[in-house]
Amino acid sequence: MKKNPAKKTRARAVKPLIGKLVVFGVGLIGGSFALALKKRRAVAHVVGVGRSRANLLAARRLGIIDEIASDAASAVKDADLVLLAVPLGQTRAVLAQIAPHLAPHTVVSDAGSTKRDVIDSARRQLGAAFPRFVPAHPIAGTEKSGATAAFPELFTERNLILTPVAETSPGALKLVAAAWKLAGARVVTMDAAAHDRMFALVSHLPHLLSFTAVSNIAGYPDAKNLFQHTGGGFRDWTRIAGSSPEMWRDICVANRDALLNALDSYLSDLEEVRGMLEASDAAALEAKFATARAARAKWLTPK
């Protein structure tokens, strides 16, 4: 009996990891996640939800999403995975909107830069669906935003942090971890409180300082002249001040306590350096700078 080649090809076809993916906030993170999964053929259909119609139209034109949803209920209907890639201040409201419409199998995750507040919101809003919520944070990004900034390699060899809690479903955790691995990320797990302390120090504080540095210079009467004479050092240091003010406002407020502790420690260090400078203590300044340089070489210089 002659074999049917088409039937054989269909039999070999691999079912995508995710049938229907819904992305709330089709910007740099959400858009890049969708593109990365599409590149790996790990998702069959992507639905986009957002505040800006123009951005969603751009996302569809660029092939990031396949469909624009008119409302949260229709968006999440029969979804396999829902990703919240919205500013942190919108997370609670979006969770409340989708909670009544989630299918029994739907997994929900996020991409927020803080985790304790997001977990608390999910626990309050999702009710019985809370075990299928997997808190996540991709450590990747640029200062650009919107669908046009998205690209599929954004997460390649970048860390993706999961902060599951005792109630988190192993199946939901497995799905989210697998999706991020297919997107190119290295998946690690940690406690939510440890996560928030860590990123207050290594991410949230640097952004706060960068915005403040630019704001400080902008406040001088000759600001135009000052900015015209900045060099590469100032531009490198303040690149992240080009990030979304709304996003970073929400992050700072959400992680207020950990960020205040980080800021207090930094201010203490600045006071110490100020004392060295006031005393013209060149040796102490050099020692401080040398310690910083050695630490950077040890931990931040590519091997």
Structural overview:
The chain is α/β, with parallel strands linked by helices and 303 residues long. The protein folds into two domains: 5-190, Rossmann fold; 195-299, 6-phosphogluconate dehydrogenase C-terminal fold (Orthogonal Bundle), CATH 1.10.3660.10. 52% of the residues lie in helices and 12% in strands. It has 13 helices and nine strands. It has helices spanning 5-12, 28-39, 53-61, 72-76, 88-98, 116-126, 170-182, 192-218, 223-228, 232-237, 245-254, 256-278, 282-299, and strands at 18-24, 43-49, 67-68, 81-84, 107-110, 133-134, 136-138, 159-162, 186-189. The strands form two sheets. It has a six-stranded parallel beta sheet with strand order 3-2-1-4-5-6, sandwiched between helices. A three-stranded mixed beta sheet has the order 7-8-9, with helices on one face. The protein is elongated, with a radius of gyration of 23 Å. 36% of the residues are buried. The mean pLDDT is 94.
Question: How do you describe this structure in short?
Answer:
With 303 residues, the protein is α/β, with parallel strands linked by helices. It folds into 2 domains: 5-190, Rossmann fold; 195-299, 6-phosphogluconate dehydrogenase C-terminal fold (Orthogonal Bundle). It has helices at 5-12, 28-39, 53-61, 72-76, 88-98, 116-126, 170-182, 192-218, 223-228, 232-237, 245-254, 256-278, 282-299; strands at 18-24, 43-49, 67-68, 81-84, 107-110, 133-134, 136-138, 159-162, 186-189.
CATH topology label of the largest domain: Rossmann fold
Number of helices: 13
Helix content: 40-55%
The span between the termini is: 60 Å
Largest sheet: 6 strands, parallel
Helix/strand order: HEHEHEHEHEHEEEHEHHHHHH
| Top-tier CATH class of the largest domain | Alpha Beta
